[in-house]
Amino acid sequence: MGNGGWWWWWWGLMIIGAVVAVASSGSQRKEDLRVSRIAFGSCSDQSDPQPIWDAIIKYDPQVFIWLGDNIYGDNKRPFKLFGKERTIGPWKNAPRFVPNSRQEMELRFKKAKTNPGYSRLREKTKIIGTWDDHDYGLNDAGKEFSAKISNQELLLDFLEEPQDSPRRKQAGVYASYTFGPLGRQIKVILLDTRYHRDPLSSDGTILGNLQWTWLEKELNGPASAITIIGSSIQVISNLSATTGPLISSESWGRFPKERDRLFKLIADSKRDQVFFISGDVHFGEIARYDCATGYPLYDITSSGLTKSIEEAVPPPFHFIVRFVASLTPTTMRVMNQNCRFSSCTYGQPNFGAIEIDWDATPVTLKLEVKDINGLTVTGVKMSLLELQAGSINNVVTMKTGEYWRHCSPEVTLPWLVRYRLAIVFYSAVAILLLALIVFTYAAVLISRRCLGKCKFD
Ligand SMILES: *[C@@H]1O[C@H](CO)[C@@H](O)[C@H](O)[C@H]1NC(C)=O
Question: Which residues cross the membrane (predicted)?
Answer without folding.
Answer: 6-24, 423-446
